[in-house]
Design a protein that fits this description.
This protein is an alpha+beta fold. Helices cover 35% and strands 22% of the residues. The chain contains 17 helices and 20 strands. The strands form 5 sheets. Strands 8-9-10-13-12-11 form a 6-stranded antiparallel β-barrel. A 5-stranded antiparallel sheet has the order 1-2-3-7-6. Strands 15-16-17-14-18 form a 5-stranded parallel sheet, sandwiched between helices. A hairpin with a 2-residue loop joins strand 4 and strand 5. The longest helix has 17 residues. It is elongated and about 95 Å long.
Length: 522
């Protein structure tokens, strides 16, 4: 896959008349590309350079007698980019592709060995890579200057071919030289891929959440399976709230130690102090005094008489992993009705109108409270769907990856739009830790990326023999299976299956293959 990516990202450097004078390669999806300084000079200057028939911007131009490289930018480019590295070992195999031969209009491939790195007087005494080309491979010749040196060992480009070296080899500018002269290369040598600013979902999806959040006393319920993007969505909603001038606090119920859940009193005290600290109000907390009021009433008074007046703006609470408290019956019986009460008080209490709730959870089975006291049937319910093909392709662009249509279909069959599975796979490939072929080969095994995720699901199934047997029958079949409706619903809440009419089947091949192996099926 990586070599296919290298070929995709390598282009001819031409004159305005279309005469090829060299080669270049894209190092970023924003259109930055590397080539040789002497290639730019041979074209007639950077303003005469054409890539894909378009003019370029000059970012850096070295000297052909020393740092023989140039950085150009094609502003219209929105494609993939080549992975880079400074690392290599003598005798590592290299591959390259260059333009200029009329009998190879799509570029001619070169195969050989990286022999060593030495200083050369012809290049200002700078270190140059020495390359030996295989006898049965294309030889380096005119038009190949600026070609990438792709290290087959680490699947990354480590240099730029700059000159012939007799007839059996070439010299190349190592990327360490580029880094020394052009410090901006660092961000592509050590890329960091953050999902924080990446819009996984479309604008309509977000706008519905944001519109609801602007309502007084809003309550947004985000229900989705484990590792499905709930925390990501909560953070986006809270970020929006902050930009509107609201105060926003995320509370993760998996965070506190288990002793916090020993009593309702301990839990609500932790809850109030946690929020006050996040709002920098911990130094002005009211003194704790004996009160005949119950714990829920004291918590409500804390919000209405201290917290909300102190901040004098709407407060958005993102309550993440709320179902973590469900195993603590006393807390569940009291805290969930409290959330419902706060939501409903917005119609009668001026202060409570400023409190908006965003709650995230994966399940709501066996909650020991009356429906009329539950927060799970009021407000706006938001369901996070599987990622569409368009969204996955947007992610590919975000991670600067290029897949063939066949590879894209293979990825889809194994992951089927599962947000967590897709994101982990693409990020791993973007960091060049695994190829797609290897990733898919080991994905449903203990060696794969998803070992912890899969073991967690297996453990959850083992805790419920009925669901375990239902899953056994589902993965054993090659067609959708009709099972008990309640079990189907619970398996869907876990993210293990998807509905096909009234029947279900495994959400993706990863789950089918993994659980078949766990059940000892062939």
């Amino acid at each position: 896959m990586r070599w296919d990516l290298i070929k995709t990202c390598t282009v001819a450097i031409s004159t305005p008349e279309g005469e090829i004078r060299g080669t270049g390669f894209f190092i970023s999806s924003e259109g930055y590309l590397l080539t040789c300084a002497h290639v730019v000079e041979d074209v007639g200057g950077w303003d005469q350079v054409r890539v894909n028939g378009e003019a370029v911007e000059l970012i850096y131009l070295g000297d052909r007698t020393s740092d023989d490289f140039a950085v150009l930018r094609l502003s219209s480019y929105q494609g993939a980019s080549i992975p880079l590295s400074l690392d290599f070992q003598p005798m590592d195999r290299f591959l390259s592709i260059g333009y200029g031969r009329p009998d190879f209009p799509q570029g001619a491939s070169i195969d050989g060995t990286i022999t060593d790195i030495n200083r050369h007087s012809e290049f200002g005494n700078l270190s140059m890579l020495r390359l030996r080309v295989e006898a049965n491979s294309q030889q380096v010749q005119g038009g190949y200057s600026g070609s990438p040196v792709f290290n087959a060992a680490n699947q990354r480009v480590i240099g730029i071919i700059a000159a012939y070296d007799n007839t059996e080899g070439a010299l190349a500018v190592p990327l360490v030289t580029v880094q020394e002269r052009w410090s901006d290369l660092e961000k592509w040598l050590n890329p960091s891929y953050s999902d924080e600013d990446f819009p996984f979902f479309d604008s309509t999806f977000y706008s519905n959440c944001y519109r609801e959040l602007n309502k007084q006393g809003a309550l947004i319920r985000v229900k989705a399976p484990l590792q499905w993007g709930k925390t990501y969505l909560i953070k986006n909603i809270l970020d929006y709230a902050t930009k509107q001038g609201y105060k926003a606090v995320r509370v993760d119920f998996q965070e506190p130690e288990t002793t916090i859940f020993d009593s309702l009193e301990n839990f609500l005290q932790w809850f109030c102090i946690k929020i006050a600290e996040e709002l920098n109000l911990s130094d002005s907390l009211p003194e704790s005094r004996q009160s005949p009021l119950g714990a829920n009433s004291r918590c409500t008074n804390f919000f209405e008489k201290f917290l909300l007046p102190a901040i004098n703006s709407p407060l958005v609470l993102g309550l993440d992993n709320l179902d973590w408290i469900f195993t603590y019956e006393q807390i569940t019986r009291n805290f969930l009705p409290l959330l419902r009460t706060w939501h409903e008080k917005a119609t009668t209490s001026i202060i409570s109108r400023n409190l908006r709730l965003v709650i995230a959870y994966s399940k709501e089975d066996f909650i020991p409270i009356d429906r009329n006291h539950s927060p799970f049937n009021v407000g706006l319910e938001v369901s996070i769907p599987e990622l569409s093909q368009v969204q996955v392709k947007n992610l590919l662009h975000h991670y600067q990856l290029s897949l063939s249509e066949e590879q894209f279909q293979q990825l889809g069959a194994m992951m089927n739009g599962h947000p967590y599975l897709i994101r982990v796979a693409l990020k791993t490939m973007a960091l060049h830790e695994l190829t797609l072929t290897r990733l898919l080969e080991i994905a449903p095994t203990e060696e794969g990326l998803y070992r912890t995720h899969l073991l967690r699901l297996w453990s959850m199934l083992q805790e419920n023999p009925g669901l375990l047997e239902a899953m056994r029958s589902i993965v054993a079949a090659n067609i959708p299976v009709r099972i008990d409706a309640e079990k189907a619903s619970k398996l869907r809440d876990m993210g293990l299956v998807k509905y096909v009419g009234s029947s279900v089947q495994p959400l993706c091949n990863l789950y089918r293959l993994y659980f078949r192996d766990r059940f000892g099926m062939q």
